[in-house]
Amino acid sequence: MNTHDLDYRIKKLKDLPTLSTILTECNNMLKNPNVSASDLAKIIKSDQSISSKVLKLVNSAFYGLSGKVSNISHAIVILGFSTIRNVILSVSVFDFLPKDADLGGFEISKFWEHSTGCAIISKVFAQRLGMKDPEEAFIAGLLHDIGKLAIAKMFRDDFITILKTTHKDKVLILDAEREVLGITHPQIGGILSQQWKLPTTLTEAISFHHNGEKKINNVKLVSIVHLADIITRGLQIGSGGDQVIPELNNKAWDTLNLDIDIIERWIDDIDEEIDKANSFFSVLSE
Amino acid sequence: MKQIDISDLKPGMVLAKNVYGKSENLLMGKGVPLSSEKIEQLSCLGIKSLWVEAPDERKEPSGEDITKITKEVREMLDSQFEQVSHNLIMKELKEVFARYLIKRMSR
């Protein structure tokens, strides 16, 4: 891998598909304190495919409103603006790669199962650690590996080589990416997150979920996603494409100030939540 | 084991077969006891009928089953954790995962 190749690849990332314009419009609207539910509903309704998925999702067992929400305005009032924004974000990223794409044995449904599991565990841990925005932790968990899909989409052949290296050498995808591509999925995910103008805290969680960094704003969120990724792998929920587990980062462990007994109790508690996640995931992967 | 219509499901019944969604993803595993919430969930997912265990059929896993499950779980985790076994917290986490997986798979 020479510098020229790497530059070329980073430039190519600029051609990545943008997320739905609805999302950008929602983000802009949510910055305005005077925005009403009907203003937001109008924007969402302008995209038929997104609005029908949003309705299906809010009516799924995941949000516990089974079958009771018949229109978007109603959904916004019940769930609140920021949850709806996260629902739209989830719906948009699930369309990022077709679920039947041929990627040398990489299963996209397993990938999303892993991501959804990580999202749920991040959210529950954020709640129990008293973080003020557990929904943000959910989205951070859901998107933490989005860089892998970007690699699969933009550099398909390299991605297949990465998977082969991962299996042959029994290493993390991260290490194989470094060897084959010279750039890793957290780095690419971070670039993508910036291009999509996602909040800085999300970009950090995506960029640093494998290692803590000194100059980040929300060390706690990054640490939660890092631990949740390890737990999701250990509980064998879905698959991110590799079969080994990353080592726990000492700094993340110290930041969270947890002990093994607490983790074991919380894992037992989330059994039901994980079953619920299946409904979230199955609506989105239809 | 018998196949029954979703409308005849009662809380407390136990799934006798895995339930899969449209994209062949696992929605609920066999052995899961059904709560009213889970029944509603299945109904919302468009499941029409499924297999449940007849009340006298539900067996506790035998000692032999548990030994087999334990062996499978241990082998899986040993391979996954091979390169991080020097880290004490990872070692403890591995035990937590093993207990959880053995319990879940024995249900």
Q: If you had to describe this structure to a student in words, what would you say it looks like?
A:
The complex is a heterodimer of chains A (286) and B (107). Chain A is an all-alpha fold. Chain A is built from 17 helices and no strands. Helix content of chain A is 66%, strand content 0%. Chain A is globular, with a radius of gyration of 19 Å. The mean pLDDT of chain A is 87. Chain B is an alpha+beta fold and 107 residues long. Chain B has 2 domains: 56 residues, Molybdopterin biosynthesis moea protein, domain 2, CATH 3.90.105; 43 residues, no CATH class. In chain B, strand 2 and strand 3 form a beta hairpin. Chain B is elongated, with a radius of gyration of 17 Å. Chains A and B meet through helix 14, helix 16 and helix 17 of A and strand 3, helix 1, helix 2 and helix 3 of B.
Short description:
Chain A is an all-alpha fold. Chain A has helices at 3-12, 21-30, 37-45, 48-58, 72-79, 81-94, 108-128, 134-143, 146-154, 156-169, 173-180, 185-195, 200-207, 219-234, 250-256, 260-269, 271-284.
Provide the descriptors you would attach to this structure in a database record.
heterodimer; A: 286 residues; mainly alpha; Hypothetical protein af1432; 17 helices; 66% helix; globular; B: 107 residues; alpha+beta; Molybdopterin biosynthesis moea protein, domain 2; 2 domains; two-stranded antiparallel sheet; two-stranded antiparallel ribbon; 3 helices; 4 strands; 12% strand
Q: How many helices of chain A in DSSP terms?
A: 17
The appropriate CATH architecture of chain A is Orthogonal Bundle
Q: Oligomerization state of this entry?
A: heterodimer
Major β-sheet strand ordering of chain B: 1-4
Helix count of chain B equals 3
